[in-house]
Amino acid sequence: MGQVVILVTGNTMRQVVILVTGITMDQVVILVTGNTMLQVVILVTGNTMDQVVILVTGSTMGQVVILVTGNTMRQVVILVTGSTMRQVVILVTGNTMDQVVIIVTGSTMGQVVILVTGSTMGQVVILVTGSTMGQVVILVTGSTMGQVVILVTGSTMGQVVILVTGSTMGQVVILVTGSTMGQVVILVTGSTMGQVVILVTGSTMGQVVILVTRSTMGQVVILVTGSTMGQVVILVTGSTMGQVVILVTRSTMGQVVILVTGSTMGQVVILVTGSTMGQVVILVTRSTMGQVVILVTGSTMGQVVILVTGSTMGQVVILVTRSTMGQVVILVTRSTMGQVVILVTRSTKIKYFS
C-alpha cells in the first residue's frame, strides 16, 4: 500500500476498533477526533513498515489503547493530546525498532501507562508534558538498549515512577566531540541566557540528542553537521523565546526529528537540507505564535511529515521543495488562524493528502 489514511470523527462513540495489517506499508496515518469517546482501540501489525503515525485528540476520552506490533519498523510516532483523559495505554512491542517516539500532552490526565518492550531497540524517547498529572508510569524493558531518554515536565505532579531494567544499559550526560561517537547527549539549562550556540560536528555518529530548556532566551542557534549520521533528535522547549533557528545539514541521514514546543514564540525557522534523507518529521506545537516558517529542501527524500497544531496562529507558511519524493503529508489543525499558506512544488508527481 502506498498510503493508508483513516479518519474517525464523531461526538459520541461507544467503541472504535481500527485494524491495519499488511506485509509492506509506506505510511499509515490514523486520526481519531471526537468530543466524547468511551474506548479507542488501534491495532497496527505488519512485517515491514516505514512509518506509523497515530493522532488521538479529544476533550474527554474514557480509555485509549494503542497496540503497535511488528518485526521491523522504521519509526513509530504516537501523539495523544487532550484536555481530560481517564487512561492512556500504549503498547509497543517488536523485535527490531529503529526509533519509538511517544508524545503525551494534556492539562489534566488521570493516568498514563507506557509499555515499551523489545529485544533490541535503537532509541526510545518518551515525552510527557502537562500541568497536572495524577500518575505517570513508564516501563522500559529490554536486553540491550543503546539509549533511553525520558522527559517528564510539569508544574504539579502527584507521582512519577520510572522503571528502566535491562542487562546492558548506560547513561551518558556529557559533551563529547570526535570523529567516531556512539552517543552524544547535550543538556543546557538556565533561567536567563542571551545567546546559546551548540556545535556538534563529526564524520560518523550513531546518535545525536540535544536538549535545550530554559525560561527566557534571546536567541538559540543549533548547528549539527556531519557526513553520516544515523539519527538526529533536537528538542527545544521554553516558555518565552525571541528566535529559534535550527540548521541541520548533512549528505546522508537516516532520520531527522525536530521538536519545538513553547507557549509564546516570536519566530520559528527550521531549515533541513540534505541530498539523501530517509525521513523527515517536524513537530511544531504551541498556543500562540507570530509566524512559523518551515523549509525542507532536498534532492531525494522518502517521506516528509509536517504536523503543526495550535490554538491561535497569525501565519503558517510551509515550503517543501524537492525533485523526487515518495510522499508528502501535511496536517494543519487549529481553532483560529489568520492565514495558512502551503506551497508544495516538485518535478515528479506523488500522492498528497491534507
TrEMBL record:
Keyword Ribosomal protein found: no
Transmembrane region(s): 12-32, 52-69, 100-117, 196-213, 220-246, 266-285, 292-318, 324-344
Domain of life: Eukaryota
Keywords associated with the record: Membrane, Transmembrane, Transmembrane helix
Protein known as: Uncharacterized protein
